[in-house]
């Protein structure tokens, strides 16, 4: 067994492409959004609070991105029965709110994206547009 393995990383070009696509989708909905992108370890790579987005939604968007990267699934995959406990146990860093999606390339998680400030459906649509822009698994 090898002590190392190759892995993909999310480049700054991909982050900028995702931010641009997410902004465009949010504008199509007429809903300014907070957009946060993290790498697979939860490190912040890109973030923007669009003009008019709710400033507290920045915090929930970050939690959504962290959650999606950590569980390698949509934030809504966290069972209802444990959402509150997980949120409390992590100091609010994990959430089951809609709008957090993992960034998957050929089955490998390379990060997470979190969107906040709109409805759950709007948040998911904006995140999905960002993933499509880089050809990520949907």
What is the gist of this entry?
The protein has 138 residues and is an alpha+beta fold. It has helices at 12-29, 57-71, 80-89, 120-133; strands at 34-39, 44-49, 100-105, 108-116.
The percentage of residues in β strands lies in 15-25%
| CATH class category label | Alpha Beta
Overall 3D geometry? globular
Gyration radius, rounded: 14 Å
What does this structure look like?
The termini are far apart. This protein has a single domain (12-133), classed as Haem-degrading domain (Beta-Lactamase), CATH 3.30.450.150. 41% of the residues lie in helices and 20% in strands. The mean pLDDT is 97. It has helices at 12-29, 57-71, 80-89, 120-133; strands at 34-39, 44-49, 100-105, 108-116.
Characteristics of this structure?
138 residues, Beta-Lactamase
Task: Itemize the secondary structure elements and their pairings.
Elements: H1 12-29, E1 34-39, E2 44-49, H2 57-71, H3 80-89, E3 100-105, E4 108-116, H4 120-133
Helix pairs in contact: 1-4
């Amino acid at each position: 067994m090898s002590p190392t393995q190759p892995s993909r990383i999310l480049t700054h070009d991909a982050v900028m492409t995702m931010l641009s696509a997410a902004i465009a989708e949010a504008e199509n909905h007429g809903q300014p959004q907070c957009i946060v992108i993290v790498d697979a370890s939860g490190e912040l790579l890109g973030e923007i609070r669009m003009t008019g987005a709710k400033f507290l939604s920045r915090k929930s968007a970050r939690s959504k991105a962290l959650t999606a990267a950590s569980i390698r699934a949509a934030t809504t995959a966290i069972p209802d029965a444990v959402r509150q406990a997980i949120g409390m146990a992590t100091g609010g860093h994990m959430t089951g709110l809609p709008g957090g999606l993992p960034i998957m390339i050929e089955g490998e998680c390379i990060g997470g994206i979190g969107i906040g400030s709109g409805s759950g459906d709007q948040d998911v649509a904006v995140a999905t547009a960002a993933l499509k822009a880089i050809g990520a698994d949907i």
